[in-house]
Design a protein that fits this description.
Blueprint: E1 52-58, E2 61-66, E3 74-78, E4 84-89, E5 96-100, E6 108-116, E7 119-128, E8 132-139, E9 158-164, E10 170-179, E11 210-212, E12 216-221, E13 242-252, E14 256-266, E15 277-280
Antiparallel strand pairs: 1-2, 2-5, 3-4, 3-6, 6-7, 8-9, 9-12, 10-11, 10-13, 13-14, 14-15
Length: 281
């Protein structure tokens, strides 16, 4: 993707370069296993786990591994609301099963039931829930070497690193900048504009979503130009230094809205776009 279709003038806002039967539920009142899995990390299930060797989240899947001598014919996964989330019949000798979570599941506790016939022979509970945190915000002008080559206005764009400290995957769907920046992205708050760059993204709307798995981080790049002084709805440089604050907002399908505040300083300049800009926590 290139941005050669865009031009910048002093008073043009560049807002974008911008049901199923529940088999074996009679055992659902058995004692819970409070262990928690993560991306590729096994839960240390004990208690009544029986033939369930480990239950974990790997990428976008819930993965169940069975003991070597397991005689499990069926696996049921029960969602946090008590309804059947998914089910699999297992052939003899199968020791691993995967259930697709994706990025639109209901967060909470999932119970995995191991069945032989209609008898429950083991169960395990796993909390699956993302927890997104913004850990870095950078001005493109200060991180040019980290930006994709396809971006033309790197110095005016932003990078944001998001960390998923939870136990389940999520998908980032929107990136906003509010407050004392040269180009606030208030126009992106509604509609189908994500404001996030991607190699195959529409150069006006951005990508639909960026998946982020548990216990991982993703650095995303803005399609909008929050640090462009060509916008007429933000900060201009002045003959005296200025300081203020702004907020970065990341929206996701499951965790909702995550925000981070940063301080911003502008040096003095005789030109409206000639000052140096720095940000800090």
């Amino acid at each position: 993707m290139t941005q050669s279709d865009f031009t910048i003038d002093r008073r043009t806002v560049l807002s974008s370069i911008t049901g199923a039967t529940l088999v074996g539920l009679a055992g659902c009142t058995s004692s819970r296993d409070d262990s928690t899995g993560s991306n590729g990390t096994a839960s240390d299930g004990t208690g009544d786990s029986g033939p369930l060797k480990q239950v974990s989240v790997e990428g976008l899947q819930l993965v169940v591994e069975l003991t070597a001598d397991a005689e499990v014919e069926h696996l049921n996964v029960i969602s946090p609301n008590g309804e059947l989330f998914d089910s699999q019949e297992l052939s003899q000798g199968v020791s691993r099963a995967a259930f697709e979570l994706g990025t639109s599941y209901t967060p909470g506790e999932y119970r995995v039931l191991a069945l032989r016939g209609e008898d429950e022979i083991g169960s395990s509970v796993l909390a699956i829930e993302p927890d997104l945190q913004i850990v870095e915000v950078g001005i493109g002008a200060n991180h040019l070497e980290r930006f994709p080559e396809e971006l033309t206005f790197k110095d005016q764009q932003a990078l944001v690193t998001v960390e998923n400290r939870g136990t389940g995957p999520d998908a980032i769907t929107r990136l906003l900048f509010k407050g004392d920046v040269p180009g606030p992205t208030t126009d992106y708050e509604t509609g189908d504009v994500s404001g996030i760059w991607g190699p195959d993204a529409n150069n006006q709307r951005g990508v639909d979503a960026v998946a982020i798995t548990a216990d991982s981080e993703e650095t995303i790049f803005s399609i909008s130009l929050p640090f462009s002084f060509a916008a007429d709805n933000g900060i201009d440089c002045k003959s005296t230094p200025q300081s203020g604050s702004f907020r970065v907002v990341v929206q996701s399908q499951i965790d909702g809205k995550t925000t981070a505040s940063r301080r911003i300083e502008y040096s003095e300049s005789d030109r409206y776009d000639g000052c140096d800009t720095t940000i800090s926590d």
